Amino acid sequence: MKPRFQQRHQDYVLGPNQDSRLASVAAGQVVTGIELQLDNDAAFLLRGRAYRVSYDNLDSRTQVGLNTLSLRYSGPLRDFRSEGYIPQGLVMPYGGQGGAWKGLQRGILYPAGSIIQVDLVNTGTSALTNLTLYWRGVKLFPWGMNPAYTYPSRCRVLPFVYPISPISSANPYGTIQNLLTAETRILQQFVCQNDADFVFRYGQAGPSFSPFPLEVGVILRDENQKAFSNDYVHYETLFGPSLGNYPCGGSTIPAVGTGNALPSCMFPEIYVPKSHILYFDIQRADSGYAGAAAIPNFPINLVGSKAYPS
Amino acid sequence: MTYRPQYAYPFAPLGKEDETFHYSFDSTTTPLLGQAIAAGGQSNDIQLPTEQDAPFFCRGIKIQLGTAASNLYVQLRTPHGDYINVPYVPLSNWATGTGLAPAGQLDVPLPDEIECPPGSAWTLFLYNPTLGSVNPPAITLYGVKQRKCGSRRMA
Does B87 touch chain A (CB under 8 A)? Predict the structure, then answer.
């Protein structure tokens, strides 16, 4: 049965670009009345949450204070969904990053143009730098508003992994080449091969060896350049894996249980017909970190399946 | 908790039965996987053969270097000649298991199973993008063998 609405993957970002108070939340500080204005083009069904702060430095790659955030957030009627401030470290591991999203069992439906209100407190002893909250779900469009590409009526599918950039003699592995410490590239293209459609289900990104990135964000766009998010989503939240360290008691630990087997899946999948394209913007803001260097090859794997008509 | 929806695989056809099986390839079974790959070098056309007694349906994969994620790039060709990634892609961003290796790791499920006829072979291609030599990883293919009902010899 055809669903009533066409669902389209959407990530909303609420960070310093949306409310400058989130650039630094001092120890013990309470910040109230933070508002995320949702888009007016469609209703939004919230299905998962995550959050992060900036890494401290290249050596420890730790998100300091991540486990000391408590917050409450509202539904569409400014109805808060918890009685008080809830320690987020008790709700989700690793701030929900790397595919560890805090899922909502039934979701919360926000009409078009709604506002999500957030009140929060930093209960720790160190400031939260560039605190960013992520809201993952789907936009609900009337059918016909967006392309509705889907599988052929009869098809054969093959698991497949694409690099995000076109392959050429100058870029034989399809990586994002020579990503500088402070750089923004917009409307980069992913081109689907011409032999089969591609069903994009999740991505995995970032180099596994030095030089490492810290603050890199990506905006995915469809072939009409319509974005799947309202701002840059950190690559470890949008894709994964999560290679940094997380505060735990008086120490830190790496993420255990995120990565290729449990990636940050998108729902619904993004269906790219053969020879069609996706756009993406990428932004790196690491110039403030000592020792940051240009990354010769920043890989992003797009993982899913090819669909061959049969 | 992290969550990934499980994929639905078809039942074995009438008269056949599935038997859980996995293939593992490392330096003890595949000599080429025991030779370090020089900086910037490649090791190509490494054959990973399957057994001849029954078709194998691959439903998951894990490629791991000892207890650490490998920095190699990888390309795999199925027994039918289809490449499942083009070109080489970073191993750590695709097929390295989830979890801590000493405590066991989850394999990476394939959304669609890949049929391997009896006696067929996968082909592995490796590329080392780093500035030092890197040892090849071990490859494990998870899935089922599909046998005729009653063909399994009882002990």
Answer: yes
> Any CB–CB contact under 8 A between B120 and chain A?
no
Residues 6+ apart with CB under 8 A from A250: none
Residue the block writes with tokens 């490998």: B70
pLDDT score recorded for residue A267: 87
B96 closest CB neighbour out of A172, A174, A260: A260
- Is-contact A21 A34, C-beta < 8 A? yes
Q: Which residues of B touch A201 (CB under 8 A)?
A: 111
Least CB-CB distance to A159: which of B73, B111, B129?
B111
Helix (H) or strand (E) holding A196: none
How far is residue A39 CA from its own chain's centroid?
17
Residue B105 C-alpha, separation from nearest chain A C-alpha, in angstroms: 9
pLDDT digits (tens, 9 = 90+) for A183-207: 999 999 999 999 999 999 999 999 9
Contact assessment for residue B134 and residue B71, using Cβ atoms and an 8 Å cutoff: yes
Angle at A184 between CA A183 and CA A189, to 5 degrees: 130
- Confidence (pTM): 0.94
User: What is the distance, to the nearest Å, from the Cα of residue A85 to the centroid of all Cα atoms in its chain?
Assistant: 24
pLDDT (0 to 100) of residue B155: 52
For chain A, domain boundaries:
6-141, 155-309
The C-alpha angle A276, A280, A282, rounded to 5 degrees, equals 160
Chain B residue whose CA is closest to A307: B112
Query: Bridge-partner residues for A87, per DSSP?
Result: A70
Per-residue pLDDT at A169: 93
| Chain B residues inside the 8 Å CB shell of A161 | 84-85, 89, 94
Model ipTM value: 0.89
Provide the pLDDT for residue B154.
58
**Closest chain B CA to residue A241:** B93
Dihedral pair phi/psi, residue A90, rounded to 5° = -90, -10
Higher pLDDT, B6 or A265: A265
Chain A residues whose CB is inside 8 A of the B106 CB are 261-262
Tokens 């010769």 found at = A296
A157 contacts B111? CB cut-off 8 A: yes
Q: Which domains, ranges and CATH numbers included, belong to chain B?
A: 24-146 (2.60.120)
Name which of A161, A171, A253, A274 to mutate to probe chain B: the one with the most chain B Cβ atoms within 10 A of its Cβ: A161
Protein fold of A6-141: Jelly Rolls (2.60.120)
CB A74 within 8 A of CB A117: yes
